[in-house]
Amino acid sequence: MRVFYWFLKRVLAGPILRILFRPWVRGLDNLPSEGPAIIAGNHNHFMDSIFVPLLAPRPVVYLAKKDYFTGRGIKGAVTRWFFKLNNQLPMDRGGGSGSQASLESGLKVLREGNSLGIYPEGTRSPDGKLYRGRTGIARLVLESGAPVVPVAIIGTDKLQPAGRLVPKLRRVGVVFGAPMDFSKYAGLPVDRFMLRSVTDEIMYEIMRLSGQEYVDTYASTVKTKLLTSAKPKKADPPSRDESKSDGESSSN
């Protein structure tokens, strides 16, 4: 898999993406050259998981939603094959044992001394704003002791406006911030207040790097509200009087 990853980056897809999107990067010296690191970024487009590894000097393993690995038919098989060979692991967002398994997968990547990419928001932003982070990232940080490199991915929110099937060809950028050390929490009992504090600190750095407007609400909550409001409301059935009135008017 590692061979395919480098072939994809250096020969097959990487050169084409560089020509089409002319990506720029800042702060590469902030990435640890070795050892575990958590790459935490904002999330506006599925190509975020392509541009960060493309520009990073070392492989980045991403936790991707498990739907990409469970599709059926030829399309599902191709998608599953691509994501596995592209250094991505399935992540369960449903909570409970599935989320715990995802956490363990991420910890395994870090224990092996690799870079793990994660989007603390848990899902793509519906409108280009930065939303509240999920505390799963704090659990990874506290259990692994790995430094966090905050990342701002710039311009991908403009790639594919609603209704557009093919992404626009425009420049995108990636800014790697200074590594964040949370060793001050080592040995302390972990509670929800600590998890929220660590998560919010990371989100603040992402906001500072990206310049996005911050919304203290989960992106998934906003998406649900948008979907609900977009559904056409069912018309109320006519009252008995209205039905009688319609019948009388049609018979005249």
Automatic annotation (TrEMBL):
Keywords (A to Z) from UniProt: Acyltransferase, Transferase
Domain of life: Bacteria
Record has rRNA processing as a keyword: no
Residue span(s) of domain Phospholipid/glycerol acyltransferase: 37-156
Any Pfam family matching the protein: Acyltransferase
GO molecular function terms listed in the Swiss-Prot or TrEMBL record: acyltransferase activity
Keyword Transferase on entry: yes
Region described as Disordered: 226-252
Ranges of Basic and acidic residues composition bias in the record: 233-252
PANTHER family in the record: 1-ACYL-SN-GLYCEROL-3-PHOSPHATE ACYLTRANSFERASE
Protein name per Swiss-Prot or TrEMBL: Lysophospholipid acyltransferase family protein
Taxonomic source organism: Brevibacterium permense
